Amino acid sequence: MTITALHSQVKADTDEALLDMLASFPDHAPQLKAAMQHALLAGGKRLRPLLVHVVGEVLALDKSDCMTIACAVECIHAYSLVHDDLPAMDDDDLRRGKPTCHVAFDEATAILAGDALQTLAFSIIADAPMADTGHARRAGLVSMLARASGYLGMCGGQAIDLAATGKEVSVEALTQLHSLKTGALLRVCVEMATHVADDLDAEHRSALIRFADAIGLAFQVQDDILDVEGSSDTTGKPAGSDVALGKSTYPALLGLQAAKSELDRLHQQALQALQGLPYNTHLLVAFSELLVKRDH
């Protein structure tokens, strides 16, 4: 299967699964339910679910395990975007080419939608269908997702980002920021997928996680480049928004060409992590190329 075909399948399957979950909820808070659906199904690329399923294809994981992990991670990702867009944070009016949640609804509803999506992620890990091996390892999956989402991961990175706004930071500090804010959720996709793999060699798992770390940073470098070179038509958000908000970016610190060189270095680092693995890694290679060559 090609990465394009797998991506299309994963996106359709993830959208359907998330919509079915929301449809099963009672209608006692219809505006909140609609806001959650807006956040979850407003055109996301489903790159994190794709990464889970790519690892699943490489390691021959059970499809139900991959779907459960993918949906949980996507709920965390969606919640983070809802809260990032709020006036108290990045104050964005546009996300994926559509009004952000607080604009489409209101600020209070957006806050609650983010809260509800975060808790939904852990309900999915606790209760959604999994194979016997995955079912036996649910507690570990909860721990991994909580770590990647909270102070030690995404939220900690967001706090560093807010503290650094309007200030010039070092490349090292920017790397730490994005390893937490953006990279942690990509890394946990691989951590969780490999956690439910039966009899996976520890060195092979470590190599796959190194791959995830490298592409997590590469993803952010490309995001920064697109903020400079892209347009709102392709990226789905206002071009130059990071610069306008006074955020440190790789092009701002290194220059555009040096940022592109850093992107290439990280891409090569990701590919090197795959060398020596006793699997067909062509989908992982293709996924890395999808991330670094995307235009939105």
From TrEMBL:
- Say yes or no: keyword Metal-binding present: yes
Q: Enumerate the Gene Ontology biological process terms.
A: phospholipid biosynthetic process; terpenoid biosynthetic process
Kindly indicate whether the keyword Transferase belongs to this entry.
yes
A GO term, aspect molecular function: metal ion binding
Q: Which InterPro entries match?
A: Isoprenoid_synthase_dom_sf (IPR008949), Polyprenyl_synt (IPR000092), Polyprenyl_synt_CS (IPR033749), Prenyl_diphosphate_synthase (IPR053378)
Cofactor(s) listed in the protein's UniProt record: Mg(2+)
Q: What is this protein called?
A: (2E,6E)-farnesyl diphosphate synthase
Species name = Alteromonas halophila
